[in-house]
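Response to reviewer comment R2.3. The reviewers asked that we include at least one raw input/output pair. We reproduce the pair for Phenylpyruvate tautomerase PptA (4-oxalocrotonate tautomerase family) here without editing.
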Amino acid sequence: MALTRVSLRKGKSAEYKQAILKSLYTAMREVFDVPDGNDFMVIHEHEPDGFVYGKNYLNIERTDDLVIIQITANDTRTMEQKRTLYSRIAELLQLEPGIRPEDVFISLIEIKQENWSLGCGLAQYID
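Raw output as returned:
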């Protein structure tokens, strides 16, 4: 299971945003074995005054095209899977919609399986 939130500055086209979501879903399917149809993703767009970031933090030069990706997923993946996921996301986003790897910021939040309710008020992973 994964829930993905994407934050970026306002002004990008619908095609651009859909390409981001498609690339993220592809990477998660390939690397994290996310099941088919498990594409729960949202995009949050921000005005410039509501989107602040370290332009050169850790000597990485970021631009206003920065995309902040927060993935909440089950705590079941290895360190190697995590490294591979980060790399694959950056690679796919560079291909489509053309985001520089320096502008891809990823945060992974891992939770226990019992912390999900996917509808109907049930804890599907423990019931």
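Helices lie at 14-32, 79-95. The CA atoms of residues 31 and 84 lie 7 Å apart. Further pairs are available on request from the corresponding author.
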